[in-house]
Design brief:
single chain, eleven-stranded mixed beta sheet, Ig_Tag1-like_4th, 47% strand, alpha+beta, Immunoglobulin-like, transmembrane, Tag1_C, transmembrane helix
Length: 864
């Protein structure tokens, strides 16, 4: 504050007089004039220099006198005034410094120089109202932390003068949350404390404080926001009335308020923990149904200087509902054992829970979903992800826990992630036995499961059970969605959308082995959606020609219906991996098939095609059954297409013969001119009994519902011996049994008439209802393969009816000079084995063809 004007002039005059006592008269006169009071003094007023009144008559008459100059001698200095002014100025300056500047500097010094290092925080006891905590710390004043040199000097001087301060009586500190309508977070009662203010080494403080929690709602809101990760910043305001004293000198009561702001990253976090054990066991309940006891052990590391004894606490274990808006579902109660927490040491927590039943909301499907809250939890847990459960305190105190602690814990739900289990080794074996296949229904819609190949068989699974699970399990049904792979490439998808009955056998653990669960289920007509036809072709090729097992890999998500002591529950989307060993189709599959054709019937003809219907019996040497409602293949010879065969209603059983209804179209024109020639040659070779083969090859229309599969399988052509026709009279009569071979014997007998130069033949027709016509014959009879007997040229058509029929007498032109003719005459009245070569024109309906025939070892009778 500035001094009044008169006071300023007074101080100025005093300082100027003291500084220049020897100035000349003009200066003295000026000085005296400046020091003259503003109001003239009366003659009776006393003089400040201590001298008596003047006797000058002019002055007495009221005339103004000349100002008096100060004496030039030392005895004329006004020392009292000077001293008074100096003291006054010093006090003013001291008041300004110590009242305004020093406290501000000391406060800044204290904030910057003080260093507090907590060494231990231990909870001595939990009382009915709060916690008695022992706080130990080291503190010191480090002036080097103060960057301002002036503040540092003032602070060091002030704290050196004071030495130490102490509080008088107990101090109550109240902590508020300004952002939450000043909710009271809690209070702390501090005992009287004495602290040294000297700059230097660490000083130890050790005291016991009473901590009392404040508004429970505020604590719950803060805790939940922190746990949910929504707590960005926290602003705390501490407030206290502190009575200070220095020694015996009281320093008064000071109201202190301080605010602190913590960012989210500065807040303490839940310590990392490890669930070391989860044990499940059945536990009988007196007067009730058995329950499942759950024992959990958790290990964590306390990295803080915190020591406390936590009493036994009761908690509820909850599972999140269908969504954030739905309340969590209580599934079990748990009680923890007393826990001792020590600074910088591992903490072990044991909890025991009891699951008495499965609440209905836990099993109820969520709206718009096919999963329940339990399904979603197990899907994450069994899939290796962290599944979160909630732990919330129970309001009912457990053991020695005070009511306020239980009430506070009951308002906070802590999410606890359960580390997912790795189920890579859960399935010990996965196999499919008694396999049978069903091809797609050609009349099924594309979206119908019947439009895919279908698999039936018995699934055998051996699963290992965790060692800490001592609960009876019974699998009653399974369903699954499985991806099937071959050599890393996806073959298709095996879908079991409906439940398939299952049974299981639980094998207890032994000293040198684990507990296992054997599961058996029979599946019927499970659709196999082939996604890569080329991969299927590779599998079939390996089965046909590989000669060893083909391993298919399976990755599946399995739904399991399980009966437990808690009731029946469905465990969905359990990941499972395994292998399906597929046995080869046999080392000599093609030779073992041995097709036999029976009941041949021509149902349609054109000038160049024949449509036949026949019954074909083949052997199934494989361990697989098959159901093929329709399949079409091209028939080839030497790489040329000569026809098409369609099979209907094939039902093959493992290691058994199967009779197939086949409709075949003989149409060599499919292969062009080369096909026509090749078809004629094939017919000639076949009826002549030569070893002939045909090739069956799939095409885009082989499986109408899966054209890509038919194309992919077309590179796996099957070359088979031509089917053997079952002719009338096979098995006896008409020919020498000793000469029987595997070729068809269309000419069963012959008779040569020497005198009439004619011959008749007994023919066997493979047709059941159709008559075959021979339009003309140009043939030669031979003895011993080379010696001609005679020739037959006949141009009158004759019929060959179903079964055995005899031809009309055909004229023979004898080779009279040949050895063969002489041998014929020598056999007159007996029999002779002859060979024949012929070119024959045949006709069935509108179809006509010219074929060659070569027969050997034909038994012929010779008569006159």
């Amino acid at each position: 504050m500035s001094e009044p004007p008169a006071r300023s002039r007074l101080l100025a005059a005093a300082f100027s007089s003291a500084e220049a006592p020897e100035r000349d008269d003009d200066d003295a006169t000026a000085a005296a004039t400046e020091s003259t009071p503003l109001l003239p003094a009366s003659a009776s007023d006393p003089r400040y220099d201590g001298e008596g009144d003047h006797d000058d008559p002019d002055e007495a008459a009221g005339e103004p006198s000349e100002p008096l100059a100060p004496s030039k001698t030392p005895s004329g200095i006004r020392w009292p005034s000077v001293i008074a002014m100096v003291v006054l100025a010093g006090l003013s300056l001291g008041i300004m410094v110590f009242a305004f500047m020093v406290p501000s500097a000391v406060e800044e010094y204290a904030k910057q120089a003080v260093v507090i290092e907590p060494t231990n925080l231990s909870l001595e006891s939990i009382t009915a109202n709060g916690i008695r905590a022992r706080i130990q710390a080291n503190y010191r004043l480090d002036s080097q932390r103060v960057p301002n040199e002036h503040v540092r000097r003032i602070g060091r001087a002030a704290t050196w003068l004071v030495g130490s301060v102490s509080t008088a009586g107990e101090t109550r500190i109240r902590v508020y949350l300004p952002a939450y309508d000043n909710l009271l977070l809690g209070t702390a009662g501090l005992p009287p404390l004495r602290v040294s203010l000297l700059d230097g080494p660490n000083k130890a403080i050790d005291f016991v404080a009473e901590l009392v929690p404040g508004d429970a709602e505020g604590m719950r809101r803060i805790a939940n926001e922190w746990l949910e990760g929504r707590l960005g910043t926290v602003r705390l305001r501490g407030q206290a009335d502190v009575q200070l004293k220095a020694g015996i000198l009281p320093l008064g009561t000071h109201s202190i308020a301080e605010s602190l702001t913590f960012q989210g990253g500065q807040l303490p976090r839940l310590p990392e923990y490890n669930i070391t054990r989860i044990g499940l066991a059945e536990q009988p309940v007196p007067g009730g149904s058995p329950a499942v006891a759950v024992d959990v052990s958790i290990a964590a590391h306390n990295e803080h200087p915190l020591s406390l004894e936590v009493p036994a606490l009761a908690f509820d274990v909850l599972i999140p509902g269908c969504g954030p808006a739905e309340p969590p579902i209580v599934v079990a109660g748990a009680t923890t054992s007393p826990v001792a927490v020590r600074p910088a040491a591992d903490v072990m927590v044991s909890a025991h829970g009891l699951v008495r039943d499965l609440p209905e909301p836990l099993l109820r499907l969520c709206p718009g979903s096919d999963s329940s809250p339990l399904d979603m939890l197990l899907r994450k847990y069994l899939g290796g992800e962290a599944a979160t459960v909630l732990v919330r305190g129970q309001e009912r105190p457990a053991g020695d826990a005070p009511a306020w602690l239980s009430k506070m814990l009951a308002s906070i739900a802590v999410p606890v992630p359960l580390p997912g289990r790795s189920l890579d080794n859960l399935i010990r074996s996965f196999s499919l036995a008694d396999v049978s296949f069903a091809m797609p229904d050609p009349l099924a819609d594309p979206d119908d499961p019947a439009s895919n190949p279908r698999v039936s068989g018995t699934i055998l699974v051996l699963a290992g059970l965790p060692a800490d699970m001592n609960v009876s399990l019974n699998v009653t049904a399974i369903r699954a969605d499985a991806d099937v792979f071959y050599r890393g490439d996806k073959l298709g998808e095996l879908t079991l959308k409906r439940w398939h009955p299952a049974s299981s056998t639980q094998v207890p653990a032994t000293d040198d082995g684990e507990a296992t669960l054997k599961i058996r289920s029979t599946i019927r007509d499970a659709p196999l959606n082939v996604t890569d036809a080329d991969v299927l072709a590779d599998v079939i090729q390996a089965l046909l020609f590989g000669g060893r097992e083909v391993m298919l890999a399976v990755k599946a998500l399995v739904d399991v219906q399980v009966e437990t002591v808690l009731g029946e529950l469905v465990v969905k989307a359990v990941p499972a991996e395994g292998q399906i060993p597929v046995k080869p189709l046999g080392a000599d599959l093609l030779g073992s098939v041995a097709p036999r054709v029976e009941q041949v019937e021509i149902i349609d003809t054109t000038s160049s095609t024949l449509t036949l219907r026949a019954s074909v019996t083949v052997a199934n040497p494989t361990p697989y059954a098959a159901d093929v409602p329709y399949v079409s293949v091209h028939v080839e010879s030497n790489g040329t297409t000569i026809g098409e065969a369609v099979a209907y209603g094939v039902r093959a059983h493992a290691h058994a013969d199967v009779t197939v209804s086949v409709r075949a179209t003989w149409n060599p024109s499919l292969g062009g001119d080369e096909g026509v020639l090749r078809g004629r040659d094939l017919l000639s070779e076949y009826i002549s009994g030569h070893n002939t083969t045909v090739t069956l090859r799939s095409h885009g229309g082989s499986i109408p519902a899966l054209p890509a599969l038919g194309k992919a399988l077309s590179r796996l052509a099957l070359t088979l011996p031509a089917p053997r026709l079952r002719l009338p009279g096979d098995g006896g009569g008409g020919h020498d049994d000793g000469d029987a071979d595997d070729g068809p014997r269309f000419i069963r007998d012959a008779t040569f008439h020497v005198l009439s130069s004619t011959a008749t033949f007994v023919l066997a027709s493979p047709l059941l209802r159709n008559t075959l016509f021979i339009d003309w014959v140009n043939a030669t009879a031979l003895y011993n393969h080379t010696e001609p007997i005679g020739t037959i040229r006949y141009g009158v058509p004759f019929a060959v009816r179903p079964g055995l029929s005899t031809t009309p007498r055909l004229p023979v032109d004898w080779s009279l000079d040949s050895i063969g003719y002489r041998k014929l005459r020598e056999a007159l009245g007996g029999r002779l084995k002859l060979d024949a070569k012929a070119t024959v024109g045949v006709r069935v309906g509108r179809w006509r063809e010219r074929v060659r025939y070569e027969g050997q070892g034909i038994g012929a009778g010779v008569s006159l």
